[in-house]
Amino acid sequence: MLGFLLFAAVLVAALLCVARYTGLAVRKDVSHGVSLALTWGFVAVLLLLWWVATRGERIEDRMIAPLILPNPFEVLQAFPKLHFEQALVRSALTSFVRVTIGFSLAAMVAVPLGVCMAAFPPVASFFRPLSLASAYVPIIVFIPLTLAWWGASETQKIGFLFIACFVALLPLVIKSVSDVVPAFLDVARTKGATHWQLVRHVLFPVAAADIWDHLRGVYGIGWGWIILAEVVNAQQGLGYLISVSERRGHTSSIFAIIIVIVAIAIACDRAWRWGGKNLFPYRRAT
After folding, report:
1. What is the pTM of this model?
2. Is residue 23 part of a domain?
3. What are phi and psi of 245, to 5 degrees?
4. Quick check: is 55 in a domain?
């Protein structure tokens, strides 16, 4: 604990010194090249520190034991074994399908419900207990509940991901629609718009871009919960592979699977961003 506090203090002090004495301007944009260089610079520093902390042929020569933190080359060597002996690609596809189905079901319910709750106060009052429960009940408690409801089945895993994505998405949709400037509604009313037209042609279209961003974020949350969803009685999936590797003490395999999850999440996030740029081109400049 003392070591962590010392590390945190040094890190914060270093950040403050950089911000104070290097002339950084508040909210001043940097070029794409500089931004990319800084990003890859962080990755290079991280890999260098990782290699330094784990170098050495013998365990006694290393700063950190391989059971805690394997060498980067040991992580790379774990990929072929995971692929040929434990069906890494098939497990990744299985996890992708589970996350996508659970998220899609959650979006199908949370988006229209959130729009109606933000637009119509009686609907918001009726479903207020649901929104309060989703805000304060820890998601992890739904693991034993979904097991009791559906058993250790595929439905249980998708059901848990549905609940996790739903409780994260609903308040975000409500806020996006509630933040629509009232002036838009006033103008539409002067044109004779009905209440349903206000929802269909004003509230939802204006909030759609923000809702899309929230969908993108919640999809990433789904990838965060996939490990819990697949930890119980799963035969495939990245969470299942992590559980097996943990029981066997293969820490390098766990790091390799984490890298796969991060790679998939980055690819999906890029796809979401590409979709947002094409669906809402007016936001490209922002």
Report:
1. 0.83
2. no
3. -65, -35
4. no
Q: Which two tokens stand for residue 200?
A: 């269909």
Side-chain-side CA neighbours of 15 within 13 Å: the count stands at 6
Residue 95: give its domain's CATH number: 1.10.3720.10
Note down pLDDT in tens along the chain; length 286 residues.
Answer: 777 788 788 888 888 887 777 777 777 787 878 888 888 888 888 888 888 888 877 777 777 777 788 888 888 888 988 888 888 899 899 999 999 999 999 999 999 999 999 988 898 889 888 777 766 778 888 888 888 888 878 888 999 999 999 989 999 999 999 988 888 887 888 888 788 888 888 888 889 999 999 999 999 888 888 888 887 766 788 888 888 888 888 888 889 998 998 888 889 989 998 988 888 887 764 4
In a domain, 161, yes or no: yes
DSSP letter for each residue of 147-170:
HHHH-SSHHHHHHHHHHHHHHHHH
Give how many domains the chain has, as a whole number: 1
> Which residue intervals of 55-153 are DSSP H helices?
72-86, 88-119, 121-126, 128-136, 142-150
Q: Which structural domain, as residue segments, surrounds residue 118? A: 82-283
